[in-house]
Amino acid sequence: MQExxxxxxxVQEIVLACIAEVTAQGWGRIQIEKGQAAxxxxxxxxxxxxxxxxxxxxxxxxxxxxxxxxxxxxxTITEITPSSTNPLATVGTLTxxxxxxxxxxxxxxxx
Length: 111
Fold this sequence. Notes:
The protein is built from 4 helices and 2 strands, in the order αββααα. With about 110 residues, the protein is mainly alpha-helical.
């Protein structure tokens, strides 16, 4: 497993690349140049339901290919309670959520 800082950086790069792909396909408007502060579902960000599904699946696939780690974001994010911090608010919150999933494989169905 990668060091924590390296893991977070690698995950953030994957998230940003996947968001760029979804944006290029016209399914969202997310300003990735803002890095971690880029809004996904928070104010100023926009992604439609097809784009969101595509984003989560693409991130799952890229994490598995690039890091050799299997996670299941599409099931676990739908289980977030209203009192939870929304992992889809910004690139930073999504990155932190994924790193937490990797570090606690049972949280996101990883193996």
